[in-house]
Amino acid sequence: MKPQIRDHRPNPMEAMYPHIFYFHFENLEKAYGRNETWLCFTVEIIKQYLPVPWKKGVFRNQVDPETHCHAEKCFLSWFCNNTLSPKKNYQVTWYTSWSPCPECAGEVAEFLAEHSNVKLTIYTARLYYFWDTDYQEGLRSLSEEGASVEIMDYEDFQYCWENFVYDDGEPFKRWKGLKTNFRSLTRHLREILQ
DNA sequence: TTTTTTGTCTTTTTT
Length: 194
Fold this sequence. Notes:
Layout: H1 18-25, E1 38-47, E2 50-60, H2 71-82, E3 89-98, H3 102-114, E4 118-126, H4 133-144, E5 148-151, H5 154-164, H6 178-193
Parallel strand pairs: 3-4, 4-5
Antiparallel strand pairs: 1-2, 1-3
Helix pairs in contact: 3-4
The structure holds one DNA strand.
């Protein structure tokens, strides 16, 4: 029997289709059926205090039991294996549909602690299990390691639409409740990070 | 023009 060789380090996608974006990034209070996480990222290199665009792309969690991997870990392994140099300073920005689970948050926090040359900003559309203290603790540990954790606002959705969606020249169409949901999530996040 | 009990990166072994 031949050993099966599988790639445990998926490469990022270039962009996603509009219906995927609208479904997975909608910041609903009760987001039924969003049992996937999408993560859009930009990596910039800081040169003389100025961020210079480097790479960008989209990850989705791997559901295949063999390669099962949350989106954040997909990013980390890709980043560590492809881009990361200890001699450079990076600004990494994530736009995620769900905020990280405690395990991923812990790993990312640890990664940040070990890589002082990497700054991370996370914009999340929705907070994952935000009433659960373990999940809250996860977000705090990220924050304590210097990651900036924020809720996606209109401008962030629009930015994602323009940079990570095959938008065919169509403008971003806001959904009703976007701003109200944003405010409510911001309030929750503020309480968590206090 | 502020008020909450919850949406989930799906579940691993049996016919």
